[in-house]
Task: structure prediction
Amino acid sequence: MSLLLLLAACLLTCLGQIAQKYAVESWRGQASNLSTKLRSPWLWLALVSLGLGLLVWLLVLQRLEVGIAYPMLSLNFVLITLVARFVFQETVDSRHWLGVALVIGGVALLGQHA
Result:
């Protein structure tokens, strides 16, 4: 159950970060009007996702040691890199991919203790 909650916290946080990116992309070329920005559904999705992610994260911390749980959040780095590359068509260099591989290896090692 703890690992499912951890996965949910990761996914909600990633969703929030992706929604933030879509929000700022939707503001490009438009007037910098605060009320327009506050009506952005992407902004609200980001806020709700990040808020729910925080609540789930608190449940995770009740069940797992922070020394195990927190490094697992580095999966966000992997997921966001994949989204950046394949959704937003951003360039990801080989050193970045090496970092992703190292993060996955680290999470796999830590996951054996959870």
